[in-house]
Queue: 3 jobs
Job 1
Amino acid sequence: MSANHSSCIRLVNAQFYAWHGVHQEEQQLGGKYEVDAELRFDFGPAAATDKVTDTVDYSRAYDTIREIVTGQKASLIESLAFRIAKALMERFPSLDGVTVKVRKRNLPLGGLCDFAEAEYLIDRS
């Protein structure tokens, strides 16, 4: 009888200052962005060996996220979530899938709102 299992590593509320947005003022002044990333893969081998070489190194995943968020400007948080998810899947072949959430604070809405959030989920086919 085979056991059914799943595992993941989550990076929660990684924070960056970046210059994204539809409006020119947003791109000039910048703002606070937050990212959650759920990295889905079988970490059973890493748990058995206790070696970082047998898992997804989350410091490298964080560096990937930082590179995307603080790099090329985007108008939409949807674009950022998509770029991050695609980059993580490309850089970590052992991933079965990722879910990325990007939150934007300081919204130009003319009213009160904590944040806007875009979520992108991708699985390896």
Note: The chain has one domain: 8-123.
Job 2
Amino acid sequence: MTEHTDAQAVADFLLAHPEFFEDNPELTASLKLSSALGGRTISLQDRQVEVLREKIRQLELKLSNLMRIAKDNDAIIANFHQWTLQLWRSQDANDLGEAVAKTLKDAFDLPEATLRLWDHCTDAGDARAFTDQLNAPYCGAASGKPGLAWLTNATAMQSAALIPLRKPDSEQSIGLLVLASPDAQRFSSDMGTDVLSRIGETASAVLEGLVE
């Protein structure tokens, strides 16, 4: 019988007889195991405590991460709500497109935000073709991206979110919303785009009446 088979037989026996250590309490205290902390030898009881502590630590880390995510989500929801309220109050503005960008910039504390509607844009350049190909908002490096030249301080921007504006069920864009920051991590390439997509949908719904 091999060592692996012997070990498996012992494991199978203990699984089939969970009362074994209760019936033989002296073994619990006398068995010695190697600790994962420093390689020292400890009793089975201490090893069980060590394992439980590690499980608790991992659960605490997960809970902390979930609480951080929940807090971040609450902040996003509050900012989105604030934006929609400000946008609603701006409905009578002479330049609705400018109002969308300004209220978005204020609500989310964005360094730069602007947009263009193709029907009212004379400097679209490659931005329209680029936007038509976007299936989701672009997040990542700002350098060289279409639409960045529309910003007042484009050269200082390190990251950007480019959000296509579309009418419902249309593949053709009606414009592009540009958000940018000098912080390279503000719009990192690995960030989720669900909120940005909803911002684009909301802005599109507000602005679609301005395009044919």
Note: The longest helix spans residues 44-89.
Job 3
Amino acid sequence: MPPPSFGADDVEMLRHETLYSGYSRLHRYTFRHRLHDGRWTRPFTREVYDRGAAAAVLLYDPFADAVVFVEQFRPGAHAAGRAPWQLEPVGGMIEPGEDPTEVVRREAIEEAGCEILDLLHLFDYLPSVASYQSPIHLYAGRVDAARAAGVHGRSDEDEETRVVVLRSDAAFAAMVERPIISAGALLSLQWLRLNRAELRRRWGVGVQAGE
């Protein structure tokens, strides 16, 4: 894969304003950047959303070949005219000084009542590289799906999460049939679809040829 054409030294930030600071933050940046012919763009502005760094984990039982999701109300989906209750991996915001692995272990218990037995970092991503500056750290976590059930969440955070356990094939089908529209759910399920056999071997399950 070819390297990027330019780097951070090829961008000048001319101005930074915070337009709003509350549950989330909205910044306005004024930039200019280098062009391929050697010139520079004129100054231009863009608004960028800052939610704060977060961590999420796909809870997976390799022995049952099952995924543990949580279903909860999502204001963004509702405002977009989509189904307000969405299936997602568990996750939460990273507080100052906190490690992402601490977040996913805590949230797995708070949101799904599951203890993570093993943890694998998958990748970090931005929901939108054009307008979102806060990274999400994505993991896979080994759990016992038989212990996953019920309704959880924290009332002081206006959060209610219902545990949904799906066999992996049913989870893959849900991407189309439900449909699942959460970026974290789609990315983690696509990763699992590509890496399920290797993950099961890694976590001690013999896999039949062809799976």
Note: The radius of gyration is 20 Å.
